[in-house]
Every structure is written in C-alpha cells, then in structure tokens.
Specification:
The complex is a heterodimer of chains A (121) and B (110). With 121 residues, chain A is mainly β. Chain A contains no helices and eleven strands. In chain A, the strands form two sheets. In chain A, strands 2, 4, 5, 6, 9, 10 and 11 form a seven-stranded mixed sheet that branches. In chain A, strand 9 and strand 10 form a beta hairpin. The radius of gyration of chain A is 13 Å and the shape is globular. The termini of chain A are far apart. With 110 residues, chain B is mainly beta. Chain B is built from no helices and nine strands. In chain B, the strands form two sheets. In chain B, strands 1, 3, 4, 7, 8 and 9 form a six-stranded mixed sheet that branches. In chain B, strand 3 and strand 4 form a beta hairpin. Classes of the chains: A mainly beta (121), B mainly beta (110). Chains A and B meet through strand 5 and strand 10 of A and strand 3, strand 4, strand 7 and strand 8 of B.
Chain lengths: 121, 110
C-alpha cells in the first residue's frame, strides 16, 4: 500500500524557517517524480515545487522561488521541503504528492494527508 | 503563473449530468493532452479522477469522463450521486515544463 506521511509543519514567525519531510513507502520511491502542493485555508491548490527521480531537476513556483528548496533522499525514501523567509501568505496545508510515473504527465496518483504550516507572530 | 479558469460552482440533482469547464491557453491546456482532474471532498486530500484528458485510473467510476477542445478541457459527471459532492480541480502541464491548477469548482448535489 502506498503511503506518504508528511511531518514538520507547525507555527512559525514571519521570517522564520521550517523543514517539511515526507516519508514514502509501498512503492519504489526512486522511480517517481514528486511534488509539493499547498492549499491555503479555504483556497485552491497551488503547485509549490517539484523534483525529478534523481533530483537533477527542480521546479519552484514564482511565489516561493529563492526561499524554498526541495530535495530527496532516495536511500531513505524521503522528500524534503526547506522553507525560509516565511511569510503570512505561505500559511497553508502542504501536501506531498507522488507522480504516476517519473513525471506527472499522467497526473499525481497519491497524496499525503497534508501538514499545516502557519506563519504568524 | 495564472491559474486555469473554472466556474466557481455547478449543481445538479441526483441522476443528472454536470459538466465543469477548464479554460487555459495554447501554452498549457491547448498544448498537449497532459490534463488531469482531481476530486477533493471536504477535509480530505485530492484524488486523481482523470489523466491525459480522458483516461480514468483504476477504481474511478465510468460516470466520470473527460474531454478537450482547443484550450478548454471538460469533466462530465453523469448520473450524479450524493457522494460526488466535492471540489474539483483541473491541472495541466505547461510548455515551460511546469504545472498549473485550475481555480476549482464546487459541485453541489441538490
């Protein structure tokens, strides 16, 4: 059974940092592209970041470029999102998302339960 | 990075059909068949319902169907059921190599 379990969310002050982790199981982690998608309270979905199977290509939404860094450790089946210079508008549930293949051309077939990041003083 | 345009809400009675549109540009929806649809019931994570415009993952009822014409993709739910009440999002790959979601549509079963 595929499982994606996010951790690391919480309350942080503006300008602070947070590192999200996503522990993956039930599939060959190194064979699949992964994304981070967020959803602000009462709002729609937003692609935040993506990483290829071996980490050689990463993508960032303009809203987080230069502040967030995505990485993965295929030996530990774990995806990370390092977030810095956090702003109030980064407040959202962050989902760890598995692509259906090495890319998300065929959609994202598994989503974690999400971890809430709240940026507030 | 503008979101794809969806109607805020659609509604229908049980058994009826509803269609949700997803309008983009020639740089995303119109550029390929890499369009997906997700269902998100309240308080839950999204679920993949359609990929590559019209393909259904295993386990998704055939009441859900997808299509595309030009820069607009569509999701049709036939034989609407109470359990279909949820938010629905389209998603498209862009020629730039990135992805974009639609603005989301709330489906209400009357």
């Amino acid at each position: 059974e595929v499982q994606l379990v996010e951790s690391g969310g919480g309350l942080v002050q503006p300008g602070g940092s947070l590192r999200l982790s996503c522990s993956a199981s039930g599939f060959t982690f190194s064979s699949y592209g992964m994304h981070w998608v967020r959803q602000a309270p009462g709002k729609g979905l937003e692609y935040v970041s993506a990483i290829t199977t071996n980490g050689d290509y990463t993508y960032y939404a303009d809203s987080v470029k230069g502040r967030f860094t995505v990485s993965r450790d295929n030996s530990k089946n774990t995806l990370f999102l390092q977030m810095s210079s956090l702003r109030a508008e980064d407040t959202a549930v962050y989902y760890c998302v598995k692509c259906s293949s090495s890319s998300c051309f065929r959609g994202a077939d598994y989503w974690g339960q999400g971890t809430l990041v709240t940026v507030s003083s | 990075q503008s979101a794809l345009t969806q109607p805020p809400s659609v509604s229908g009675s049980p058994g009826q059909s509803v269609t949700i549109s997803c309008t983009g540009t020639s740089s995303d929806v119109g550029s390929s068949n890499r369009v997906s649809w997700y269902q998100q019931p309240p308080g839950t994570a999204p679920k993949l319902m359609i990929y590559e415009v019209y393909n259904r993952p295993s386990g998704v009822p055939d009441r859900f169907s997808g299509s595309k014409s030009g820069n607009t993709a569509s999701l049709t739910i036939s034989g609407l059921q109470a359990e279909d009440e949820a938010d629905y999002y389209c998603s498209s790959h862009r020629v730039s190599g990135t992805y974009v979601f639609g603005t989301g549509t709330k489906v209400t079963v009357l």
